[in-house]
Amino acid sequence: MTQAPASSVAKAAPQVPPKPRTWPRTLGIVAVLAVLTALTATPALGGVEIDLGAIAKNWTNGADRIGKMLTPDLSVLPRTWQPLLETLQMAVVGAAISAALAIPLSLWAARPTNPNAPFRAAVRFVLNVIRAVPDLVYATILVAMVGVGALPGVITLVLFDIGIVVKLVSEAIDSADAAYMEAGRAAGGTQSQINRLTALPQTWPAYVSQVMYSLELNVRISAILGLVGAGGIGRLIDEMRGFYRYDALSTIVLEILIVVVLIELASNVLRKRLR
Amino acid sequence: MNDLTTRPEAEGDMPSASGPWPVELDDVTVRYPNGVVALKNVSLTVGAGEMVAVVGLSGSGKSTMIRTINGLVAPTSGSVRVGPHAVSELRGRALRHARGDIGMIFQGFNLADRASVFHNALVGRFSHMPTWRTTLGLATEADRAMVMRSLDSVGMLEKVWHRAGALSGGQKQRVAIARALSQEPAVMLADEPVASLDPPTAHSVMADLAAINASRGLTVLVNLHLMDLARQYTTRMIGLRAGEVVYDGPAASATDADFEAIYGRPVQARDRLGE
Ligand SMILES: Nc1ncnc2c1ncn2[C@@H]1O[C@H](COP(=O)(O)OP(=O)(O)OP(=O)(O)O)[C@@H](O)[C@H]1O
Ligand SMILES: [Mg+2]
């Protein structure tokens, strides 16, 4: 009676393969990161100059401005409605146009939905280029090309949004389980048929949340685009800053904050409904 | 519970491609790019309207064999013929057309979880629809009617507008069967169709497959690793071991010794599903 379990335990002692050692690699990564940080913060080696002394010297300047910003001047509010509305319009139009363009582009940029490697690489390359150019550069060039106003702002937002929406959505497609594709192929479907009928609904949640995120970013970015004459609330921000009216500035910042939070809330509601 | 033989109206109103077809493998060898030889000189003929089980241990080449039959895997040498289609010779449009005549069911159902049951079953109409129709989302009335009849024949019509992801495992596999039936196939392939299901559901899905074979006269090839399912639902059994056919004979009378010869080890409890 007592013999049997004992012997089965003795027999069952399994041969566990040796666990691979990971600490040397971890240590190596930490060391490399530490060296890189030290190098990039060493001016003698062409690194960035991190002058903590300057902060200490000029802190009264900053404190003065922060103090003003803590007491928002609400009298500026009536003047903000029109540019704020323009900003919202630019953000919505930009997000909508880029959302429409992002549907085919995302499908072409992801491996499961586009098995044609050269075509996929070409799409990705163009998108990388679009993403590499900073939004302010787009805005400055476009203002020079089409003139001051909302139009260069909208085009800038479209380019910026396409860059991020396509990247994030195509990565979501890449990492999602795509067993249903095999069923479409086994049924004799073309890639376009499979994409349209099955890949698209599978991608919907990632797509919607990225488009909502781009809308939120648009509101924030168009605050900056106004600085180079590309329309929206940024023009007013530039003006207030020019007059050192930091109290009025903080009112505008609060407004933008409220809009961003509202978009965030709407985005959460949408995402929940899609789940 | 969803035994198709109790639904005479499903019989005859869904004509197959052109009656059942035979499946012929002639000296088929499959070597994967990583060097694994999954099938070795396999020659066999499955007669039109036969219901055949393919059994073998994990890694014996069952999935590979099913996949070479509809061209999802190309043979390294040898030829595959399904009815009028020389599958191993076909490319592009002709291959898609051939696949359209061959239904396939998967262990993991391979449904697009976020798409509706209707859209998942409509995948079965791909080879009958021009791509532009699918892209514009314009299924013809005939396509819709075929999908509805297929769903009805597996008892899933009431779920037609539900999301596929919201169904139980057995319901998902029935939708997958309806997807394959929507193709109006002449041959039905099933790769471990019940391996993800609990025993009662497994039995009812196997009964559905047997009923499809009986009432529509489809040629059915089904991969199984459970000996009692092979005996109960199929008429002929092909045993694979390390990529070679080691058994080919009637299923009902296959003895435990036959299974031991196929598996190369004594029969174990997990080789049977039970009730
Ligand atoms: N895409 C692939 N690339 C490389 N090797 C593969 C591939 N698919 C299968 N194999 C190998 O080919 C052999 C046969 O695999 P196959 O999937 O046909 O077996 P199976 O009988 O279906 O097994 P299971 O019961 O586990 O599904 C295995 O050794 C497997 O590792
Ligand atoms: Mg398999």
UniProtKB/TrEMBL annotation, chain A:
Membrane topology, as annotated: Multi-pass membrane protein
Record's subcellular location: Cell membrane
CDD domains: TM_PBP2
Gene3D superfamilies: MetI-like (1.10.3720.10)
Membrane spanning stretches: 27-48, 88-110, 136-160, 249-270
GO molecular function: ABC-type phosphonate transporter activity
InterPro entries found in the cross-reference section: MetI-like, MetI-like_sf, PhnE/PtxC
GO CC annotation: plasma membrane
Domain ABC transmembrane type-1 span(s) in chain numbering: 84-267
Alphabetical UniProt keywords: Cell membrane, Membrane, Transmembrane, Transmembrane helix, Transport
Family, per entry: Belongs to the binding-protein-dependent transport system permease family.
Protein name: Phosphonate transport system permease protein
Automatic annotation (TrEMBL), chain B:
Domain ABC transporter: 23-267
One Pfam family here: ABC_tran
Superkingdom field: Bacteria
Positions with biased composition (Basic and acidic residues): 1-10
InterPro entries found in the cross-reference section: AAA+_ATPase, ABC_transporter-like_ATP-bd, ABC_transporter-like_CS, ABC_transpr_PhnC, MetN_ABC_transporter-like, P-loop_NTPase
SMART domains xrefs: AAA
MF terms in GO: ABC-type phosphonate transporter activity; ATP binding; ATP hydrolysis activity
Record-given protein name: Phosphonate transport system ATP-binding protein
Species of the source: Demequina mangrovi
